[in-house]
Amino acid sequence: MRIAELADLAGVSVRTIRYYHQAGALPEPPRRANGYRDYSADDLVTALRIRQLTASGLSLAAAGALAADPSPQADEEVLEAADRDLAAQIALLTERRERLAQARAGGHVGLSREAAALSSEATDVPPAILLANLYRDHEPFLRLVEALTEPGRREAVAALQQRFDALDADTPEAELEELSDRVRMVFDGLDEDLPPLPRAQMQLLLELVDRGLNVQQREFVRRPF
Q: What is the pLDDT of residue 47?
């Protein structure tokens, strides 16, 4: 049979059959004297098997290898590898769905879980994204983020944010000191293992933090805590 008939019986396109050939999954039969390839019933069975295997989640390379060596041992090895690959894909997709759900629930579209935890309002987003990236995969930072999501802690941070937003040139020093003490109390022990950022990175972070802040607020964020 010719390639068009093979493709029709296999339920795929001629282009797909040629792709099978290019990938090495389906051997190309020799050409006849008239220049056309002559496909056999075995070729059709192989094409059908490849289609079924790829539909089951196997890569084309794995499907071709399995079709070429139908022994039970080969089946088990290839299927086991395919199952591990599918499990990894499912885990990745599940994680992406969880992140999407968190973004939809919290209004933090496009943010990592860590950046979202550090963002209480829109102006927090740029520095939160940068900070989460600078400390990515850093265990003390991940513990800090986890602590910020604890019941009660989030509310305490929100209260600090409200007081910080109210700072201006008329804020008395006593109130600034009291707010500093409160910041230390809320974050006590959370950042003790967090290494300081290099000077250049800290400058980038402060550049983002300073946007929209008045003089008093800028001075406050530079206080030692």
A: 93
∠204-114-207 over CA atoms, to 5°?
A: 15
31, β-bridge pairs: 37
CA distance 175 to 167: 9
pLDDT in tens, 127-177: 888 998 999 888 888 888 888 888 888 888 889 989 999 999 999 999 999
Write phi, then psi, for 61 (nearest 5 degrees). Answer: -65, -45
Tokens representing 88 are: 């990894």
| pTM reported for the whole predicted model | 0.51
Domain residues of the chain, as ranges? 3-68, 113-221
Question: What is the 8-class DSSP label of residue 38?
Answer: -
CATH topology for 3-68 is Multidrug-efflux Transporter Regulator; Chain: A; Domain 2 (1.10.1660)
